[in-house]
Adenosine deaminase
Amino acid sequence: MSEADGDETDVRRAVVLDYLAHGLSDDGRPQYAKSPAGYAVGIEDFQLYQVAFDEDERLTIGSEVVVEPPAERGVVTECHRVEYDDLSSGAQSELEYVVADLVEENEERFVDFYNDAQPITLRLHQLNLLPGIGKKLRNGILDERKRKPFESFDELSERVSGLHDPDEILVDRILEELRDDDLKYQTFVGRREQEQNQ
């Protein structure tokens, strides 16, 4: 795709969480009228989608697809956002593995969260939103990053005493944001829209 065709940043990609070759079970249409369907999670902002797929394509869980804009879609024919509770049980169980893979594949982006996290209020810091990170660990991260920015999850674990599995902590937070839509602060889910609305 050339730059003249459109801005690459406007293309939203997602990873397939569940592929239902015979369509959605709650689709009241006769079997012959149903198209293959499934669920996907956005790569950038972890938005959840219910999608319909082109009948001629066979996809597997973990396939990457374009969900927005409609003009850029290949195998996706329809797409709309859903909540965690709307996902199939297969998609819900796959979500944790896909989110963990996305965090691992985009290590630099997520390590930068530890490098760039800022206070939200006078008493609350973005780092405190992460499961298991209290005042002591937060201060350890802040002190270490003043000396030198972190470059990897391994380096985070080595330099910050008591911080084990910083990648899994992020996965847990992302899953918490996906499962609980009443959370006051969303750090990862829907981030792209929050930035566009500012």
About this structure: The chain has six helices and five strands. Confidence is low (pLDDT under 50) at residues 1-7, 194-198. The CA atoms of residues 191 and 197 lie 10 Å apart. The beta strands are 12-20, 37-42, 48-53, 64-68, 76-81.
